[in-house]
Amino acid sequence: MADTENVTELRSQLEQARRIAVTLEQENAQLEEQLERYVGKEPTVRDEMAYLQRCLNSVLELCDQAATQATRWENPLPVPEWATAVREAATGERPEDPADKRRRIYIDGKGNGWLDWATGYGDVRWVAPLAISPGDAKPSTTVRDRTGELHEIGRCW
Fold first, then answer.
1. pLDDT digit string, tens, across residues 47-105
2. Is 135 exposed, middle or buried (0-12, 13-18, 19+ CB in 10 A)?
3. Rg, the chain, Cα only
4. What does the H/E/C string look like for 33-67?
5. Is 119 exposed, middle or buried (0-12, 13-18, 19+ CB in 10 A)?
6. Which three-class secondary structure state does DSSP give residue 107?
């Protein structure tokens, strides 16, 4: 009698294991299908930069529209303050704040990160690659010439 109960319990456990295996295989198939949808579809740095440029162009266009609206009348109104401030911020033409001691963070034309390291003789700004020793610092003009561009993307302490 005990053998019959053991056999029945083993069959029950085996059946439960089969159901779990089938469920796991189905979930695995669903995950593989989802993975196939996304693999190779990640945006490149160039795609991201193009998107950011389109956003920036939209902001500048809005500033232009506000300025046009203000000056279209016979007695033109002053251009809204926000339009000028936003345009300066969007184009990076804001006046330097001498009290701002944070280091600048840059990205070059190849998607590499650079950190403001020092300002040397003749106001040459030295930048060091991120995640590499600061002894590898190079003048920002050298990096710009080698990679095609160098854009400030933020600041840190």
1. 888 898 899 899 989 988 888 887 877 788 888 888 888 888 887 766 677 777 787 88
2. exposed
3. 30
4. HHHHHHCCCCCCHHHHHHHHHHHHHHHHHHHHHHH
5. exposed
6. strand
